[in-house]
Amino acid sequence: MKRTTVLLADDHTMVCAGLKRLLEPEYEVVGCVGDGHSLVKTATDLRPDVVLVDVTMPILNGLDAGRELKKLMPRVKLIFLTMNPDPEVASEALEIGASGYLLKDSAEEELLLAVRNALRGMSYVTPQIRHAMEQEFIRDPKSLNRPRHLSDRQREVLQLLAEGRPMKEVAHILAISPRTVRFHKYRIMDELGITNDSELVRYAIKHSIISAQ
Amino acid sequence: VCLTFLGILLCVISETAAVAQSNEKDEKHVLMLFSSFSHETAWLDSMESPIRERVPVPITFYDGYIGDPEVDADSYRESVAETFRRRYAGIKLDLVITNGGQALEFARKYHNRIFPGVPIVFTRVSPRRLNGRTWPGMTGVAVSEGIWETIELALRLQPGTNAVAVIADRSGSDSYWFAAAHSELARHQEKVREIDIVGPPSRQMLEAVDALPPHTMALFLMMPQDSNQSTIGALDLLRFVGQRLPTYSIWPNLVLNGGGIGGLYQDAEKEDSQTIQIATRVLSGEHVENIPVVIYPDLKVTVDWRQLRRWHIPESALPAGAVILNRPPPLWERYRNYLIGGIVAIVVLMLVIIGLLWHRARIRKGEAALRESEQRFKVMADTTPALIWMCNARGQITYLNERWLSFTGREPQAGYGDSWNAFIHPDEVKNVQDTLSQALRDHRPFSNECRLRRSDGVYRWMLDVATPRVNGDGTFAGFVGSAIDITDQKLAQQALEKVSAQMIDAQEKERSRIARDLHDDICQRLALLSMEIEQAKRVSSDSPEATKEKLQEIRKHCSEITGDVQSLSHQLHSSKLELLGIEAAVRGFCKEFSRQHDVNVEFTGRNVPRHLPKEISLCLFRVAQEALQNALKYSGVNQFTVEILKLDDEIHLAVTDEGAGFDVEVARRKQGLGLMSMQERVHLVHGLLSVESKPGEGTQVLAVVPLDGRHLRDHSANETASTARMA
Questions:
Q1: Of the four, A92, A97, B22, B70, which is 20 to 30 A from B233 by CA?
Q2: A168 vs B: CB within 8 A
C-alpha cells in the first residue's frame, strides 16, 4: 500500500526538521518549502495527501496559499500549524477547507491525531483555540433586538434630508463636508434597514422628525 | 629726276611771286551806288567786308549817293552824273554795285558817261521793274517786292473782307508802291473794293480811316519820312489804322510794332549773299555776260502773334514757314529756371516726406512692437502668482506688479517710493537694505527671505529673488525681482520639525516600553524558568513522578511566556490585518480594546472587501486604533462606535463617541500628535480625515479613503465652523 505523503511548509527549517522526525515513522515527508508561493508550486508537482502549513510565511501567507491550493487540489488535506492563537484566523482557516488548526506549542500527540483525523475526513482544532472559537459564536445579547437608535447628529441629518434638501445644502447648514453627510445618510439607512429616499421620508414623518405637511 | 623736280619747284616759286606782284598792281576799285543814304549804310557794311574776304586783292570801295531820283529833277540827276564823271575819271573802276531801282536806272542812264565798260551788278530790284529785260554788261539779283503776295495773304487770312483800304503817300517813292498796289488789287476787283486813302499823313486821313465801312482791311504802304515833321506822322497813322482794321504791309517790320498783322518781305540776307557771290565772281575776272541774273520769288511771311489773336486768325491758316513774331514763349521757356527749381524742390520735398513717412512707419512699427511687448509683460507680470518688482541702478523702485499692490493693499496712485521699507517687518528692514545695497554695488543676483505686511496686517514670509537688469548698451539698469509667499512652507517646515521631534519622542517612548516589557517581564520569567529547570534537574533523581510534574509545570510556563510574547508582537503589528483583512482586524481590535479597557465598542462593518491595498488597510487600522485611544482618553464615556463601510469607491471609517467633545480649532492649533499622525496617514493614501466635534456634543472622526487612487478634495462649506478640515 502506498504510504501517505506529507508536504511541510514552514519558513523555520528547524521546525521542519522536528516535524519530519515526528512524522517519518508513520508517513512519508515528501518535502519542505519556506514560503506560500513555493508551497502552491511544489504541492501541485508532488501531489501530497496532507499539507502541514504555517500561517505566517513570507511572500504568500499560509491562509492565502491554502486557499489557492484548495482551489487547485480540493482533495488535499490542509492542517495549519502555527503560533497564531487568534480564533478568527482559525475560523478563517476552517472556512477555506482546512482539516486542522494546531498551535506549535500543542502536544506532539495532537499533531498525529490531527493528521489521522484529517485522513479520515474529520477536522481537529487544538482545544486552546476551540474554546475561544466557541466564545466567538456566542452572540452578544445586547446586539440582538437592539432598539433602533439614531444619534443626535444622525437625527439632524435625517431631518434635513427628509425636508428634501440636497446633500450639499445639508452639509452647508451643518457646516460639515458633503462626504460626512453621505456617510451619515448611509448609516441611517443601514441602521433603519431602509433602502431608498422615500422610505427615509416616511420614517421621518412617522417618528415626527418632520411634519406631514 | 632731280633736275625735273627742281624745275617744278622753281616754276611754282616764280609763279607765286608773279601773282603777289600783280596783286599789288591790280588793286580793285568798286563803286557802290545807292539812293537813300540813311537806309543804306548798314547795307554798305554788310557788303564790303564779305567781298574783301572773298577776293584775294585789296579793294577800295567808293560810296556813290545819287540822291532820290524819284523826287529830284532830271537836272539834279544830270549834275550828280557830271560830278561822278569827274570824280571817277582818274580811277579805273572794276565793278559798280547798284542798290535799288533808282540806282539801277541812274547807272543804266549814265553808264557810258561815268564808267564806260565797267560791269554793273544790281541788287534790291523788283522783277517787275526788270520786266524780263537784260542789258549788256549788267547782271544782278532781283527779288519780288511782295505786293501781290501780301494781298493774296491778306485775302486768305481775312476771308470775310470786301474792301481794301490802301493807305499810301502819293508823293516821292511811295507813289511807286501805291501804283503797284493799285494794279495788283485790280486783279481782285470782283472780290474786294479798293478804297484809297492817300497822304501825306493828316487829320483828314484819320477821319477817312474812321469812316471806313466794316469788313475792310488796310494795306499800309506809307514810309515814315524823317523830313516830314507834320503833327501827324506815318507811324501815328499806322497805330490809328492798326487799332481799327486788320492791317497788312509789304514792310512787315514797319507794321509789326505799329498794330499791324504783318505781310511778306524779301529775305535780305539771302539776297545780299547772292549779290556778294556775283560781285566776287566779277571781281575774280569772270565775264559779266556769263553770269545770269538771279530772280528770287522767295518771300517770307511774317506776322504778329498778338494781332492774329486779336483778329481771330488761326495759325493753321498761315502758309508753311511763316515767321510768327511776338509769340510769348511757352510757359516752359519763360519760367524754365523757376519750373526746374520748383520741380527739384518738389521732388526733394517729396523725397523728404517719403523718408519721413517711412521713418514714422518704422517708428510706429517699433512702437507697436514695444507696446505689444509691454502689454505682454504687464499681462504676464500681473497674472503671475509672484510679486514682481523692479528698481533702478540706485535702488529706487520703478515698477510693482498688480499682485504686489493688491498684496500690500497699497494704492496704485501712491507711487512707489520706499515701497519695500514701508511693508517689511521692522526686524528685517536693515538686513534687506544691506543685501540690496551690497547687490547694487556688485551687480549680482541675490535672494533673501523676509516678512512682508499683507493688506490685512498679517506679516507673511516672502522669498525674494532678484536678478540684475542691463540696458541696451550693456550698462547696469537695476534689478528685477519676484517674491513669493512661503509662509505655508515655513509653517509646514516648522510643523514638520515639531512632528519629527514628537515622532522621535514617541518612538523612543515605545521602544522603552517594549524594552521594559521584555526586561521586566519576559526576562524575569525566563530567568525564573531557568531556575525551575535547574530545580527539576535536581529533583529528577528523587522520583520520576515528581520530575514529570515539574516538567509539566515548566511547559506551562513556557506556553504562558509564548502567549505574552505573542500578545506583545500582536500589539506591535497585527498579523490579522494581513491574514483576514481590515474588517476582521478592526473588529478584533475593538473586541480586544473592550476587554482590555472594560468599555463597550460597538463595531459595524459593511461591504468592506477583504483584500485592500496594504497601505490602505494599515492606514485605516491605525486610524481606528488612534481614534479609539483618543476617545478613551478624552471623551469621559465608555461607549464607542466604530463603523467601517464601503460607499461607492471609498472606504469610510468612523469612530464616534458621545462624550465631552472638544474645540477642533484649539486642537488643530495645538497640533497634537494623535490628530496629526492620523491626518498624515490618511493623506498618504489620498484620503480625507475630518474631525467633527463640539464641546459637550461628542466627537466623530471620519476617514475617507479612495480605492481608485484619485485624490479626494473636500468641499467643506465653511472652514471656520466647528468642523475642521484636517486633510
A1: B70
A2: yes
Q: Do B576 and A83 touch (CB under 8 A)?
A: no
Quick: pLDDT tens for A162-190.
Answer: 888 888 888 888 888 888 888 888 888 88
Interface contact A44, partner B, CB < 8 A: no
Q: Determine the Cα–Cα distance for residues A201 and A173; give it in Å rounded to an integer.
A: 19
pLDDT digits (tens, 9 = 90+) for B384-417: 888 888 888 888 888 888 888 888 887 766 666 6
β-partners of residue B199 are B169
The rounded distance, in Å, linking the Cα atoms of A77 and A117 is 10
pLDDT tens digit sequence for B188-246: 888 888 888 887 788 888 888 888 888 899 988 887 765 455 567 888 888 888 888 88
Chain B residues with beta carbon closer than 8 angstroms to that of A92: 579-580, 584
CA distance B76 to B73: 5
Which residues from chain A sit within 8 angstroms of residue B602, using beta carbons? 143
Sign of the dihedral through C-alpha B404, B406, B407, B410:
positive
- Confidence grade of residue B5 (pLDDT, cut at 50, 70, 90): low
What is the pLDDT at residue B722? 34
How do residues B457-477 score in pLDDT, each as one tens digit?
Answer: 888 889 999 999 888 888 888
C-alpha cell at B57: 586783292
- CB of A148 less than 8 A from some CB of B: no
Cα–Cα distance, B90 to B113 (Å, whole number): 13
| Chain A with chain B: Cβ pairs closer than 8 A | 97
Amino acid B717: pLDDT: 37
Measured distance CA(B370)–CA(B334) in Å, rounded: 54
Whole-number mean pLDDT of chain B?
82
Q: Sheet harboring B476-485: ordered strands across?
A: B397-400, B387-391, B476-485, B459-470, B446-453
C-alpha cell of B3? Answer: 633736275
Going by the DSSP 8-state scheme, the letter that residue A97 receives in this structure is: T
Pairing of strands B387-391, B476-485: antiparallel
- What does DSSP assign to residue B288? G
- From chain A, the residues in CB contact with B654 under 8 A are 183, 187
Q: Which residues of A touch B702 (CB under 8 A)?
A: 179-180, 183
Identify the pLDDT of residue B511: 86
* pLDDT value for B720: 33
Q: Could you tell me which residues of chain B have a Cβ less than 8 Å from any Cβ in chain A?
A: 558-559, 562-563, 566, 575-576, 578-580, 584, 587-588, 602, 604, 606, 643, 645, 647, 650, 652, 654, 656, 658, 688, 690, 692, 697-698, 700, 702, 704, 712, 714-718, 721-723, 725
Q: What's the pTM?
A: 0.47
Its ipTM equals 0.78
Check CB contact under 8 Å for B716 and A177: yes
- Containing B142, the helix (H) or strand (E) segment is strand B138-143
Q: How far apart are CA B689 and CA B674, in angstroms?
A: 12
Task: Quickly count: other Cβ atoms within 10 Å of residue B203's Cβ.
Answer: 10
CA angle A5, A6, A7 (to 5 degrees): 130
Give the three cell numbers for residue B113. 558817261
Asked if A61 has any chain B CB less than 8 Å from its own CB, the reply is: yes
Question: Minimal Cα–Cα distance from A89 to chain B, Å?
Answer: 7
Residues B9, B14, B18, B24: what is their CA dihedral angle, to the nearest 10 degrees? 90
Neighbours of B513 (CB within 10 A): 12
| pLDDT value of residue B711 | 77
Residues of A in contact with B576 (CB under 8 A): 86, 88-89
Look at B690 and A177 and tell me if their CB atoms are within 8 Å. yes
Residues of A in contact with B584 (CB under 8 A): 88, 92
B65 contacts: CB under 8 Å, gap ≥ 6: B34, B35, B37
Sign, CA dihedral B557-B560-B566-B567, equals negative
